[in-house]
């Protein structure tokens, strides 16, 4: 019959359209809640496969890397960055510029006065973060950074890059917990070393016979 193929095609389309609702209703409140369903959704599953962005967003894995951010301690207001310059040296695209701060006498101090990243060159490799000895620079998750002028608007200054440590803790909970555990272990080891030094010092100060041994 003329048009049979067209009707069959429309039927298939209609079936998939209906399955969209069946699948979405099955996964109420949302098939995208928590992001797990999207990650697990297989090609043979029915329904809409496209994420309804920007209303719906994929949950970003912790290890996702985008243009880096600079951390500061909100409690003290201090930058974690010491302007050591290591990140500028390891950056493969050479897209980081730092100007070290100076005190009132003009002596350089361990703090960046200016810090720039050209996000149009950054390839999100994360090397700056891996090599930073102070944990001051970390890959951000914020990928919604479309601009009109890449030559001006994609050069982020220190103000645009700074985020509080709590933000890093929120988007990288595992990494943050490991860092805190390492810091605590280091502090404990330092305290133990100081204690044993004090013990050795007081033993050396003690005069022979004072402890009744001689
Ligand atoms: S971000 Fe880290 S590696 Fe880069 S200058 Fe600051 S302290 Fe050094
Ligand atoms: S992520 Fe890679 S390319 Fe981007 S600033 Fe860091 S080292 Fe450079």
Verbal overview:
The chain has 214 residues and is α+β, with helices and mostly antiparallel strands. It folds into two domains: 9-59, no CATH class; 66-171, Alpha-Beta Plaits. It is 40% helix and 17% strand. The chain has eight helices and seven strands; from the N terminus they run ααββαββαβαβαβαα. It has helices at 4-26, 36-40, 86-90, 127-131, 150-153, 158-161, 165-171, 173-205, and strands at residues 66-73, 78-79, 96-102, 108-118, 137-140, 155-156, 162-164. The strands form two sheets. Strands 1, 2, 5 and 7 form a four-stranded mixed beta sheet that branches. Strands 3-4-6 form a three-stranded antiparallel beta sheet. A hairpin with a 5-residue loop joins β3 (96-102) and β4 (108-118). α7 (165-171) crosses α8 (173-205). The chain is elongated, with a radius of gyration of 28 Å. Bound molecules: iron/sulfur cluster (2 copies). One iron/sulfur cluster is lined by residues 81-87, 98, 132, 134, 136-137.
Give the SSE layout.
Elements: H1 4-26, H2 36-40, E1 66-73, E2 78-79, H3 86-90, E3 96-102, E4 108-118, H4 127-131, E5 137-140, H5 150-153, E6 155-156, H6 158-161, E7 162-164, H7 165-171, H8 173-205
Parallel strand pairs: 1-7
Antiparallel strand pairs: 1-2, 1-5, 3-4, 4-6
Helix pairs in contact: 7-8
One iron/sulfur cluster binds next to helix 3.
């Amino acid at each position: 019959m003329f048009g049979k193929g067209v009707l069959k095609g429309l039927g298939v389309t209609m079936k998939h359209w209906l399955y969209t609702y069946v699948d979405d209703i099955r996964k109420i409140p949302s098939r995208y809640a928590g992001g797990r369903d999207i990650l697990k959704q297989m090609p043979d599953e029915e329904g809409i496969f496209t994420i309804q962005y920007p209303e719906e967003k994929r949950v970003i894995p912790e290890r996702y890397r985008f243009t880096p951010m600079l951390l500061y301690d909100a409690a003290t207001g201090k930058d974690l960055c010491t302007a050591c310059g290591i990140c500028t040296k390891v950056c493969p695209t050479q897209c980081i510029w730092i100007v070290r701060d100076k005190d009132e006498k003009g002596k350089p101090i361990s703090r960046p006065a200016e810090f720039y990243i050209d996000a149009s060159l950054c390839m999100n490799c994360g090397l700056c973060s891996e090599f930073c000895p102070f944990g001051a620079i970390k890959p951000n998750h914020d990928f919604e950074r479309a601009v009109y002028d890449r030559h001006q608007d994609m050069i982020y200054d220190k103000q645009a890059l700074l985020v509080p440590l709590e933000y890093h803790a929120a988007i990288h909970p595992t990494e943050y917990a490991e860092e805190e555990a390492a810091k605590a272990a280091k502090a404990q080891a330092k305290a133990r070393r100081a204690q044993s030094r004090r013990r050795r010092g007081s033993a050396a100060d003690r005069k022979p016979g004072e402890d009744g041994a001689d």
